[in-house]
Design a protein that fits this description.
Elements (H helix, E strand, L loop, with lengths): L2 H28 L4 H26 L6 H20 L4 H24 L8 H17 L4 H8 L2 H6 L1 E6 L3 E7 H16 L4 H22 L6 H11 L8 H24 L1
Antiparallel strand pairs: 1-2
Helix pairs in contact: 1-4, 2-4, 2-8, 2-9, 3-4, 4-8, 5-6, 5-10, 5-11, 8-9, 8-10, 9-10
Length: 268
């Protein structure tokens, strides 16, 4: 895909993003749903956002970008997301602009890293380490995600999450930028290592549907990333079978995360 086609694809995708958020915002303003209807609406909007992220990751899977281009876009995206969060903007405008910045930077970063995964046997070790890192970040006393959530700072949370209007709830955070990066990584890694695109995308969508259903039914926010990678790897079966030595190395990293988490808990 040349630069002109890539720019056109970018504009179309984020035009759709802006249009979807505007429509949802209008529905939220005029609707007064019951608790049950609001819960169903929350699940549907979550799946809509996740579907958009999967579509973005799939679209980026084969696009070649130089390291400088990726770095520049990521830095610019972080800057835009931070500025948008700090400025007192209308929440809808914040959700649109912040979402564009986070998806552009996160998507390109994940795709750029995933493109270097040439052997399908590397998928399992990588997703195991990523899942452990995310669980550490969310649940450990020293975790970055936990620190951001517990700070309850709107600027920090707005800088790392996609927001969207949900009828009955207003504009709320739905998906972290880490999930955007990881989805793009999985799509790109699957393509680079010759794994089937349909299985990757199907597993991603099914995992998000499972996570959304659990969140709505339990009423508790759950991290999606620890399920995304393993279920994508499982979807590819023997094609993504890992080597024992690489699996052992991944488990060593998991053990290190566990040790650090225990130390952080003991010192807190």
């Amino acid at each position: 895909m040349n630069s002109k086609d890539a720019l056109e694809d970018f504009l179309i995708r984020f035009g759709v993003w802006a249009g979807a958020l505007l429509s949802l915002f209008f529905i939220d303003q005029v609707a007064a749903p019951s608790e049950l209807v609001a819960s169903v609406a929350a699940l549907l909007v979550f799946l809509l956002v996740c579907g958009f992220v999967v579509s973005l990751g799939d679209g980026l899977r084969l696009q070649e970008r130089s390291g400088r281009t990726v770095a520049a876009v990521v830095v610019l995206s972080v800057g835009v997301a931070s500025v948008v969060s700090i400025q007192t903007l209308q929440p809808l405008l914040h959700a649109i602009l912040g979402g564009v910045a986070l998806m552009a930077g996160g998507g390109l970063l994940g795709a750029a890293v995933g493109r270097h995964v040439r052997d399908p046997s590397h998928l399992w070790p990588l997703v195991i380490v990523a899942a452990a890192a995310d669980l550490f970040s969310v649940f450990s006393a020293a975790g970055l995600t936990r620190a951001i959530v517990e700070s309850r700072g709107p600027v920090a949370l707005s800088s790392v999450a996609l927001h969207a209007p949900v009828p009955g709830f207003g504009i709320v955070p739905l998906l972290g930028v880490g999930d955007v990066v990881f989805v793009a990584f999985l799509c790109s890694a699957s393509a680079a290592s010759g794994l089937r695109r349909s299985r990757t995308n199907g597993a991603l969508l099914a995992t998000f549907a499972l996570c959304g259903a659990l969140v709505v039914s339990l009423g508790v926010a759950l991290p999606a990333l620890p399920l995304l990678g393993p279920l994508v790897a499982l979807a590819h079966g023997r094609e993504a079978a890992p080597r024992k030595s690489e699996l052992a190395q991944a488990l060593v990293f998991v053990g290190l995360f566990g040790v650090v988490a225990l130390l952080a808990r003991a010192l807190s």
